[in-house]
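Subject line: Sequence and fold of a protein, written as structure tokens
Area: Proteins and the way their chains fold up in space.
Start of record: The labelled sequence and token lines come straight after this line.
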Amino acid sequence: MSATTLQRPAAGTAPAKPAAPTEQEVQAYLRLGLRNRWWPILPSRYVEAGGKPLGIKRLGDPLVLWRDVDGQIHVQIDRCPHRAVPLSRGQNEGTSIRCNYHGVEVGPDGTVLSVPGQPGCPLEGKKAVKTYPAREIAGAIFVWFGDALHPEPAPFTPPPQLVSEEWSRFLCYADWEMFWRYSYDNIMDPMHGTFLHANSHTMYQGETEAKFVTRDTPTGFIFEKEGQRDVNFDWSELVDDGALYGRLEIPYPASAGPGGNFAIIGFSTPIDEDTNASFFWRCRRTTGWQRDTWRFLYKTRIEARHWAVLEQDRQMLANCKPGLEKFEMLYQHDAGLIRLRRYLAQQARLQLTALREAGKA
């Protein structure tokens, strides 16, 4: 046998284990977000019942969104199974979507219903268009982005701030030109509020020096200022429980109306490597006439101030590309975002490893 002859493993020998993902591969995988999570993709109001299909991109996937005549939302890959042109340039037929290029009709479950140019062709009856599990929560469309091993959605119980009748909420949505994870870094960095938002009507108090501690929770962790609560932006929480989001509270003065602290639930959904769709629910625990008072004050006096605070964050992080970490010199206040980054890398590594071992990557 020559030296160049391929050596086959002996019978019964286990195949070689795939190489573990490198740090570079893990970070590349994270550029488009973590799979196997529910992600908000768009406010519900953007898609009308029976209206024109809408094409967007999320987690790098081209998506078409449309509602049937009953108002049910449908999210599918934005690609006709015939010539791969965007279905979002087609027609909403009320119970199906039709491609304008050659008239191929696709049902809500991705099955090709008709091919007018060749009736009875093998394409008809095939489930040829990827369809994403979707649900609507608190005025936003959420989609399950599973990998090849997890096509079926995992359970997701939204936080009470988004679904409980005891809470009143407003959704703030904006597309930001920055790497999606930097938005989560921002949430897990309570100290920036003391400086960047020092002139805010709610974040001017509190010490400019602080020691931070980390506290584990069943679904993530809390990063908080030691010995300071209900003064400023004093703590933030990372939650990973079917969906990945941040939660925090900011104390409100009595002049801002009833309801106690102001809670924020934040998601940052990757669009591509350089942009994200940011969702911030602004919530207060109010009912009855107090809810009406709070909602009136919010729309007439408070909302513009909140947008101004968000604009400060956006300007600071605008056009920040992946890879800035190599220039950073972090200190104790950054322990929350350091832990966040390690956690995301760990989750990405687990997903990549499982896909490789299953021959799916």
About this structure: Residues 26 and 164 are 37 Å apart (CA to CA).
